Amino acid sequence: MDLPPARRRAIRSNALGIGIATGAYGLSFGAISIASGLTIWQAQALSVLMFTGASQFALVGVLGAGGGVAAAVLTAWFLGARNGLYALHVAPTLQLRGWRRLAAAQLTIDESTAMAVAHEDTAPASRHAFWATGISVFVLWNIGTGLGALGASLLSEPEILGLDAAIPAGFMALLWPRLKDRLSWAVACTGGLVALALIPVTAPGVPVLGSALVAVVAGTWAWRRA
Amino acid sequence: MIWLAILLGAAGTYLEKLIGFILPATVLDRPIVRSIAGLLPVALLAALVIVQTFAVGQAVAVDARLAGLAVAIVALMLRAPFLVVILSAAITAALLRAAGLAA
């Protein structure tokens, strides 16, 4: 608990900045959910209960494209698997038991983990960074979702505004920072081609799941080579 | 059906997070798991980009969404913030449709 006040302030203002950026992105999640046929409450429930952006966008995207429950849920789970690895990484620093551990689990996402890792020089700083970022993002992501859903539900025909074109752009923006080497580019291109090939021959939702095989094959190959 | 997907999806993604706190690190933290888990979002997000750009049900179509995606990629290359990326895609598609240049 011996965290210098200046350090604490710096972490908090950083966490707030990340929260505001994520909140803006929550606006688009709310709007896209409505455009995909969800109600305001359904969009809000996803942001409270699921609280992991890529999985939320994917679930909504697969349902909106006419995919079944199984395909939508599996895609969301596959995308959420990385959070388990984040939890493994932050758990020893956070040292939690009981309800705090249950709460921390829900807040374990890209942003909170990245901030905890960035402040790993001391354990109190890392803990503070995790909680401040997790809470800030949770609150602002949910406010953003509500406002976005409310705004979009006031529009009669989302397609006139091009909201359907915002959906692939949103996935591209999530993908972009992950394209950091030749392997990730190769996996992205192959995954996209596999999905394209599967669109006419499988039920909606299945093309996205099919691309997961590309990650399994490429991941195994990279592991063998390492 | 949508509620079922929301509840099942949320329960599963929460368990994924919780398992990392409960299981000893040695059970899950293997290089092959790390390698595959790192690439899963890349493959799935790329597939979602393609499906959301080209699919109309089970048909493949080229329409205003593709132009929107192209503009979004340019915005990403210019390091634009998320909201700008999304809006530029939506506005591009809306303008092309209003002008009757794309479906």
From TrEMBL, chain A:
Membrane topology category: Multi-pass membrane protein
Subcellular location: Cell membrane
A Pfam family the protein falls into: AzlC
Record-level GO BP terms: L-valine transmembrane transport
GO cellular component: plasma membrane
Record's keyword terms, sorted: Cell membrane, Membrane, Transmembrane, Transmembrane helix, Transport
Entry's transmembrane regions: 15-37, 57-79, 129-154, 160-176, 183-199, 205-223
Family per similarity comment: Belongs to the AzlC family.
Name of the protein this chain belongs to: Unannotated protein
Species whose genome carries this gene: freshwater metagenome
From TrEMBL, chain B:
Transmembrane parts of this sequence: 36-57, 69-96
Keywords associated with the record: Membrane, Transmembrane, Transmembrane helix
Matches recorded under InterPro entries: Brnchd-chn_aa_trnsp_AzlD (IPR008407)
One Pfam family in the UniProt entry: AzlD
Protein name from the UniProt record: Unannotated protein
Organism the protein comes from: freshwater metagenome
